[in-house]
Amino acid sequence: MKITVKLFATFRQGRFKIEDRDVPVGTRVLDVLHSLDIDPADVGTLFVKGRAVEVDRVLDEGEAIAIFPLVGGG
Amino acid sequence: MHKIFRIDMTDLKATVETVPEAWAGLGGRALTSTIVAAEVPPTCHPLGPNNKLVFAPGLLSGTAASNAGRFSCGAKSPLTGGIKECSAGGSAGRIIARLGIKAIILEGQPKGEGWYGLIVRKDGVEIVPETETLGKGNFAVVEDLTARLGEDFGVITLGPAGEHLMAVSDISVKDPDGKLRSFGRGGLGAVMGSKRVKFIAIDPEGVANLAIADPAAFKVANKAFTKTLNDHPVSGQGLKKYGTAVLVNIINEAGGLPTKNFTSGQCDHHDQISGEQMYDNIVARGGEPTHGCSVGCQIQCSQVYNDKDGKFLTSGFEYETIWALGADGLIKDLDIIAEIDNVMDDIGVDSIEVPVMFAVAMEAGLLPWGDGKRMLEMLREDIAKGTSLGRLLGGGTAAVGRAFGLTRIPVVKNQAIPAYDPRAIKGIGVTYATTTMGADHTAGYAIATNILNVGGKVDPLSNDGQVDLSRNLQIATAAVDSTGLCLFIAFPALDIPECLASVVGMLNARYGLSLTGDDVVALGKQVLKTEHAFNLAAGLGDESDRLPEFFELEPIAPHQVKWDMDPKELATFWSF
What we know:
Chain A is mostly beta strands. Chain A has one helix at 29-35; strands spanning 2-7, 18-22, 43-48, 51-52, 64-69. In chain A, strand 3 and strand 4 (51-52) form a beta hairpin. The model of chain B has no long low-confidence stretch (mean pLDDT 97). In chain B, helix 6 (215-231) crosses helix 7, helix 12 (353-363) packs parallel to helix 15 (397-403) and helix 16 crosses helix 18. Chain B has a 6-stranded mixed β-sheet, sandwiched between helices. In chain B, strands 8-7-12-9-10-11 form a 6-stranded mixed β-sheet, sandwiched between helices. A 3-stranded antiparallel β-sheet of chain B has the order 13-14-15. Chain B has 3 domains: 3-202, Aldehyde Ferredoxin Oxidoreductase,  A, domain 1; 239-421, Aldehyde Ferredoxin Oxidoreductase Protein, subunit A, domain 2 (Orthogonal Bundle); 423-495 and 514-576, Aldehyde Ferredoxin Oxidoreductase Protein, subunit A, domain 3. The A-B interface holds A 6, 8-10, 12, 17, 44-45, 47, 49-52, 66, 68-74 and B 233-235, 237-239, 241-247, 249-250, 253-255, 265-266, 271, 275-276, 301, 319, 441-442, 445, 447-448, 451-454, 457, 461, 487-488, 491, 558-559.
């Protein structure tokens, strides 16, 4: 199935901003992180459809996962 | 710090007073709000002789503490009609503290049309007639005073908007690079203008190291404190690299980025105006991605942003400004946004209030959506020059919305709502509604816990727990604002216990006290209650603790949510 991966801030370095990927049905967010060599401990927030999700969230066909390191401002 | 400088502009007379016992343990916001509450009649006209403008360094300002370079300015606000405290960086606060001055109180009002400059020295204040800098922008005033008085003077200045007594005007402070930091919100520039004071220069002659009751303990606590700032990913890495604009993409992703005058929660061109894009531009053009607003800053969230030819465009380029111009007003070009930011600094206007006002003006048809060039013209030709149109715009978001008969006017207590939609991030909605300041994200930054996973997690789309969250944050913020520490220390403070403990340790070592964390919380509560009592007496009752009605009527994409918190629940905010 197809998913979209969106990376932000330092996670873009040496990777990409946005990429469509073919992944097996049942792929979890954690699997995506592993495939990108991103340590889950470095993750600040994960969004699917504008809602925060956990690493064990199973992705559905056509979904986009947005991956942020811990950031802040204000 | 043992003296208070009181400057009476009615009689053009300055006096030096000893600090009353009751004010000895106060600084920053706690002191400005206490003095305003004690000395300003809540029902007075903010631009009349009875209002007072108070400057106060924080309890740790002027010491070797990291990130303690901020100071407070307070008055009754011409924009909200309630009490106001703003915090700014720059150099003046540290110099004032190191001259042993606990507060500067500017009061009264001169007769006649003349303007004045104030030169604050170790032992008193000189009040001098001023003509040279009248009508000039803040950058020119800083340049002029640097040539006149010397490089090392602290400078507090007013742009043309403040001279015109506009409700959107701010007060600027010279930073270590000769650029500007601002007491941004609530129209404090108009209060200074109403006293007919164009600038306050602070002579550093006679600055001295402040007495520290237990220097060894102070050093240990400051070292532990600094370590927490460096260890936390937000204060130690994220803010250094991308500045606060790193929020554009994450708030957009969360569906809370108010776009086109609060009609959507997401913006198509978010990546063009993001912190990541800003960083790439800065690096490619020889700017500085990492920069501090004051001496002793470890976090370095500021930056120097150059144009395509490598020439300075702006510094201190903040998320809220970029959001307001880029998403709320649909300006897609980050360079024009930077130019507008710099012009707003120069003419001395709040870079949140003015862009939010312009988005309302765009909805009213006064200028096209996204037209940054026209906005620059209106800033330079109308607001700076005080034309009739400029004065309408200079009245702020609420004034412009009313003038054009709009209903979608994003303000609370007449102050523009900043960069987070309260329908999609409900914790910040509680802060906007209840803070004594009028809509202000910094007063209780619920974004940390609603979106950023700092200080735990509270679901942004649910009303559950939001009042408690906002209350706890507002109490802590009022305390931090009283120390002279940068508010961004809250990121480590929310996650690393040693952070707050070391702040308490520094306070104890500085003053020879034995405060606990509970005492600091009690100080925060006392500040909020003092400010709330002033607002109630000024006519801002509980019914003014509300978001505008359109948030209850218009759902926002992508979550299709409205503001639906029961006013009775909101009213429980003050039950402490």
